[in-house]
Amino acid sequence: MATERPPSIDSTAAQRWQRLPVAASPWLHEEVARRMQERLDIIKLVPTAWGHWEPLRGGTAGHTLLAARYPDAQCFVVAGHADHAKIASKLIAKPWWKPSRWKAAPLRFEAPQAGAVQMLWANMALHMAADPQALIALWHQALAVDGFLMFSCFGPDTLRELRAVYQQLGWPASAHDFTDMHDWGDMLVASGFAEPVLDMERIVLTYETPERLLAELRSLGRNLHLARFPALRGRGWHAKLLAALKKTLADPADQGRLKLTFEVVYGHAIKPQRRLALQAQTSLSLDEMRMALKGGRPARP
């Protein structure tokens, strides 16, 4: 159901992940941001203000592309942690002594007020949220009427090769479950959005070594599964994992490089005019019914 939290995510682990220090945006997130901003070509609305949700994780280079697309729009940067805001400001804010900064639209490192922005940009955030419905509700609140949400996240086929390796070895799940794009559409509608449009693509990355593959995964997120390994593992386990990855994921047709699939879900939706709630049942007396049929207005005591 749309109102339920993801059953496989450990909320405590998700909160710890949000607080972890971040030095730079992951390469894959930057690439997804680049592809997502190309989808803005089909949207006619030009925002006068927009919100960027956690750009340090979602992509600081992506922020530069958006700032160039909307040079006259002020931007609200929402960082999940104070340290993230400091690092993001160094990466995306122009130095004070540059003349281009004096003419640039305001860049504010704070959450927007309700209805303050016409676009909310959230790249690669939903799949790491313990309560995605609450997160979507925050985005809806920040948007003005007729404003739009642009988001992306991982889909169910992400890491399917790694999941298979863990299953073959009899280990707990290698990652929490990722939500299908149709379920995201249901959540958007349940949160008050209209006209959600979602699509997906699969990106296959290749790695020269299993060590490089694992380093990439550490930059992208953490395993938030409730049934993950409950304790630390030793060198023997790590060596077994490296050997299994090299044996199972290597592609002989590509010089033995290791392949890993990422399913990326893209979506956008509009915040519509609020609809008035209709009563489920209306009672009229016989005289009121006659008056209504004659086109008049029934008298009320």
What would you say this structure looks like, in words?
There is one protein chain. α2 (27-38) packs parallel to α4 (60-69). Strands 1, 2, 3, 4, 5, 6, 7 and 8 form an 8-stranded mixed beta sheet that branches. The longest helix is centred in the last third of the chain and has 15 residues, at 235-249. The model is unreliable at 297-301 (pLDDT under 50). It contains 12 helices and 8 strands. A hairpin with a 5-residue loop joins β7 and β8. The protein is globular, with a radius of gyration of 24 Å. The chain is an alpha/beta fold and 301 residues long. The protein has helices at residues 11-19, 27-38, 55-58, 60-69, 82-92, 99-103, 132-142, 160-168, 181-190, 210-220, 235-249, 286-293, and strands at residues 49-53, 74-78, 107-108, 117-123, 143-154, 194-207, 250-251, 257-270.
Question: How are the SSEs placed, and which strands pair?
Answer:
Layout: H1 11-19, H2 27-38, E1 49-53, H3 55-58, H4 60-69, E2 74-78, H5 82-92, H6 99-103, E3 107-108, E4 117-123, H7 132-142, E5 143-154, H8 160-168, H9 181-190, E6 194-207, H10 210-220, H11 235-249, E7 250-251, E8 257-270, H12 286-293
Helix pairs in contact: 2-4
